[in-house]
Amino acid sequence: MSNPVYLAVDLPQLNAAKALCERVKDHIGGVKLGLEFFCAHGHHGVHEIAHLGLPVFLDLKLHDIPNTVAGAMQSIHVLEPSIVTVHASGGRAMMEDAKAAAGEDCKVVAVTMLTSLDERDLERTGVGGTPHDHVMRLADLANDAGLDGIVCSGQEIKSVHDQWKDGFFVVPGLRPGGKAAGDQKRVVTPRQARDDGASCLVIGRPISRADDPLAAAREIEGTL
Q1: CA distances from 170 to 16, 18, 24, 30, 120 (A)
Q2: Structure confidence at residue 34 (pLDDT)
Q3: How many CB atoms lie under 10 A from the CB of residue 121?
Q4: Residue 61 appears among annotated catalytic residues
Q5: Coil, helix or strand at residue 208
Q6: pLDDT at site 183
Q7: pTM of the model
Q8: Which residue among 61, 107, 158, 165 is the active-site one?
């Protein structure tokens, strides 16, 4: 993609979300709509954003039994998303069924470990090893399941890219130099993530909550 930046839009008001996307659309490559947006606005909201002419990434992080996830994937065919997320921890069968049920032009990528988590959080959920180890295990599982790629933090992207050369890799939790990390614990800059092999850069608050979103989007685009 010519511009790998997908703007994460999770605004509670649909008109505000559309206005933000319209304002910055010439300096982003697509729009990521997550659970907050989807729960508030549903299919109608996705259609409204899609009318702006940008690819739509549905970050739904599906995680359920294989049959249910397959049914959910089929129910969003009409929205024609470019990317959809599932949780790698749902297992190989679930990921296989998700990919089989996806639209022909839709990339299915597996979330490995949320960027808001660190090693201590893993321990508390009963997972041993480092975040790097955990991400690499789940990347292997997603590859074996036939998915297009994974979601991981910028701290793991180089190792994943070295192991899975033709994968499609989504990196969230990005912060341009000097920006506050907020609730993210494993962050890098957009430029570093791109250099290390990221295919898609998900950026939200550094643009959406900037005093001047257009200037922020232009500045980030300029670093790439």
Answers
A1: 25, 23, 20, 13, 23
A2: 93
A3: 14
A4: yes
A5: helix
A6: 47
A7: 0.91
A8: 61
